[in-house]
Amino acid sequence: xxxxxxxxxxxxxxxxxxxxxxxxxxxxxxxxxxxxxxxxxxxxxxxxxxxxxxxxxxxxxxxxxxxxxxxxxxxxxxxxxxxxxxxxxxxxxxxxxxxxxxxxxxxxxxxxxxxxxxxxxxxxxxxxxxxxxxxxxxxxxxxxxxxxxxxxxxxxxxxxxxxxxxxxxxxxxxxxxxxxxxxxxxxxxxxxxxxxxxxxxxxxxxxxxxxxxxxxxxxxxxxxxxxxxxxxxxxxxxxxxxxxxxxxxxxxxxxxxxxxxxxxxxxxxxxxxxxxxxxxxxxxxxxxxxxxxxxxxxxxxxxxxxxxxxxxxxxxxxxxxxxxxxxxxxxxxxxxxxxxxxxxxxxxxxxxxxxxxxxxxxxxxxxxxxx
Length: 371
What we know:
Layout: E1 3-4, H1 8-15, E2 36-42, H2 50-53, H3 58-64, E3 70-75, H4 82-91, H5 95-98, E4 104-106, E5 113-115, H6 125-128, H7 134-140, E6 145-150, H8 157-163, E7 167-171, H9 177-187, E8 190-196, H10 198-206, H11 211-229, E9 235-241, E10 246-247, E11 253-255, H12 260-263, E12 266-271, E13 275-280, H13 285-295, E14 300-304, H14 305-310, E15 328-332, E16 337-339, E17 353-354, H15 360-363, E18 364-370
GO molecular function: hydrolase activity
Protein name: Alkaline phosphatase family protein
InterPro entries: Alkaline_phosphatase_core_sf (IPR017850), Phosphodiest/P_Trfase (IPR002591)
């Protein structure tokens, strides 16, 4: 793979002439006169899903055929989950550096589990995620940075952690998102960022390959087609994703809350179904690791925190964030998933597609550049 999700906004900033912005993806080569860049993140549009998506998406089919745009394979960061990826994109840093190390995390020193999607107020986003974003860097360089986001995102901790520094343009479900985004891009030079969640939502609720998923693919394709068709002459459009995903069949699901040995010695359960962080009772970590290793043999890797960090999967881990990782880290392989029905909303167990682990189906993402 040529690069990572962390390289996308620095490359966009380089297109705009921002100082100290490194283009590791080569998007500036032959770009010509560019004074505005659109970056659109399609939630759940994994690299390995593109051939199946293409059946409902003429623009993406044209990209795959090499007739439109430039397609490159990138990798997202680990865990391959939306909060982690959004902050990795925004900061250009890996999770161990920015601290958003999973979908849910235990707040060290407490038994509280922070769900990053529902995060409001405490802890403050500037403390929980202290790194500057590229939106802030661009604004300091005198380059406007805007984000066209659902109004429901405003005021959330995740929005602050990922998008601080951006001028937020709120949208509502009844709005014509493509028109609002195109108008924002046409209004002034600089960076305009957009996000669309429908494909990932359809995968979770109905499954990858379902009619509903293909309908969501068609909607994404229609959005991107309109953006390409209205792209100003001095603009470039970069389209990427936060992760891929896979369907998990019922037989591959393990519920730690209905398998008593798996709960023994576990104090707090965090992470998500494909990557579990187990915070253990004092002195219980070795026994928990042994129990889980035996129970999930061939279906997951089971590391201590120190072993997981040593693999480099999180990138360099700031000491301030070390305790956010479980004492035991369970990373599913194949198509397994570890549910926690007594710890999470009941609808989680009803999801069909999941992501979060380190398989190629989850980690590989596209970058499509439309000049």
